[in-house]
Amino acid sequence: MRTDIELLVASDHDAHAFRELYDRYAKVIHGFFRRRTGEHETALDLTAETFAQVWQARHRFVDRHAGSLGPWLFGIARNLLLRAVRNRRVLAEATARLGMRVERAVVTPDESWLNELDADLESALASLPAAQRSAVGLRVLHDRSYEDIGDALDCSPGAARIRVSRGLTALRGRLRPTRPTQTRRAS
Q1: How many CA atoms lie within 13 Å of 52's alpha carbon, on the beta-carbon side?
Q2: Does the predicted model carry a pTM greater than 0.70?
Q3: Model confidence over 65-120: pLDDT tens digits?
Q4: Bridge partners for 107 per DSSP
Q5: How far is CA 19 from each of CA 25, 26, 112, 117, rounded to the nearest angstrom?
Q6: In sequence order, what are the beta bridge partners of 184?
Q7: What is the tens place of the pLDDT at every residue in 107-156?
Q8: CATH number, domain 1-114
Q9: Parts of the chain belonging to CATH 1.10.1740.10
């Protein structure tokens, strides 16, 4: 199986490579947006925009995570969510750029989507077993290699990778929408 960076590099001449990258991350990126917005359609729009920005910025990507695009993708996703909250025009921007007229529910982004993000994450992290919590913290927060994590936790790099993977999987399962949002109809 090719690494994320290998797929990104191959995407210049192989459309299937970018599709594989999309398939690898789209569901989790959509889940991130869905939990924050509580709206399926808005989450789809933001997920699409995330991958459009990944495509446009693919030549500027610098590998700092041993071939993983996850942190970069979530950085782009978080920035898009922040912009949506600030601009309050997620759907209008996307449809105007595409020249489309869409008549469906429009969600007005709310600052509260971000308010509890850190608390939700801290609570979910605290609920992890100590070994997983340490591994995730070293990998995600401190950008450490699996070899370094293995050394710090007195385990093999493979065991460190498994702890990080299981910890991230558990985090995804524990992060849920905080409250429903209000919608209004597009005019």
Answers
A1: 10
A2: no
A3: 666 788 888 889 998 888 877 665 555 556 666 776 655 555 565 666 566 566 66
A4: 183
A5: 10, 10, 33, 29
A6: 106
A7: 565 666 566 566 666 777 778 888 888 888 888 767 778 888 999 999 98
A8: 1.10.1740.10
A9: 1-114
Which residues make beta-bridge pairs with 183?
107
Both tokens assigned to 69 = 């695009």
Locate 162 and state its tokens: 């498994």
Closest CA to 35 of 72, 78, 86, 75: 78
Burial letters 119-143, b for 16+ CB under 10 A, else e: ebeeebbeebeebbbbbbbbbbeee
CA dist., res. 169 & res. 89, Å (int): 32
Encoding tokens for residue 139? 């990998």
**What is the DSSP code string of 143-181?**
---HHHHHHHHTS-HHHHHHHHHHHHHHHHHH----S--
Name the residue type at position 61. F
Residue 66 in contact with residue 146, Cβ under 8 Å? Answer: yes
CATH 1.10.10.10 positions along the chain are 116-179
Partners of residue 105 on adjacent β-strands = 185
Fold of 116-179: Arc Repressor Mutant, subunit A (1.10.10)
